[in-house]
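Before the break, one more example. Copy the sequence into your notebook; we will annotate it together after we see the structure.
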Amino acid sequence: MGTLYIDRKGYHIKLDGESIAFYLEGKREGVVPIRPLNRVIIAGNNTIETSVLNKLADNGSSVIFLSGRGLQYRGFLTGRIHNNGLLRVKQYKKSLDKDFSLMISKELVMGKTEKQLTFLGDAAVIMEAEGRKAAFCNAFGIIENIADAIAARCDSQESLRGFEGAASNAYFSALTSLFPEPLGFKTRTRRPPRDPVNAMLSLCYTLLHYEAVREIQVAGLDPTIGFYHCFDYGRESLACDLIEPFRPAADRFVWELFKEGKCSSADFVKENEGVYLKKDSRKEFYPVYETWIGPVRKEIVTMVKDISRRVIGGEGIIPA
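Here is what the structure looks like once it is written out:
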């Protein structure tokens, strides 16, 4: 199973031996075994007994709390922190090593631009039939030149951020033209998302971010200490680092949802200035997301293990 989504308000959630039992208005609705769960995502207003949280923590299951309709992050519960304190000490030291941080940062950004180029190249082939290939070729050329410049002469975090920003501007100028105009996707908007595409992008980025947070914590690293993203109070900067190369994959996933008719404007509701995925539509979305995220999770685990080995420098214990 791996992941359990609880996205219906009003549940009373109790422990039943080695399982979670769900009650709605006093009636038992179902039971889910705890042992297979790696993560539990809870959205909306529910009542959960502490015995359930204790059991999940003992099982090593991470619990992510999201708000109701907006599905914004509210909190994260995990079991005991990994015992490898030396790994965190080394991580702090490496984060202050400008050469090491720049090396990791360049790898992350170059991985991101490589996947942007792959996505745009594939999209250009599809859009050629509609006479819209030029915009993609233009963005592709700009990003390709930026990637070459990063590899050849980028010697500071400041210049790397400038290159990445320029690449992102070119990339999103092409990405917006992929979606039908009635969806209203003109630019990236957050907090709140202003159209269905931005709503779906925000949801996927949020879930992807906390996939990274979980694996970072399991490995024993500190999610708040990054190498590319500066330390910012309350931000999981290392998770922000690690998901950068996966953002284009999430963008492609969202595009395919709309292109294949698995998602449409009818699946969203406008509330105040924001646009959000409807509850019934979220039920359809979660299984599709789980299918997509499976291989990505494995890549994130591999990245976290690689960072751990490079941070520790051959000393201490690295999680298997």
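Residues 305 and 320 are 8 Å apart (CA to CA). Residues 85-312 form a domain with the Four Helix Bundle (Hemerythrin (Met), subunit A) fold (CATH 1.20.120.920). Try to locate both features in your own notes.
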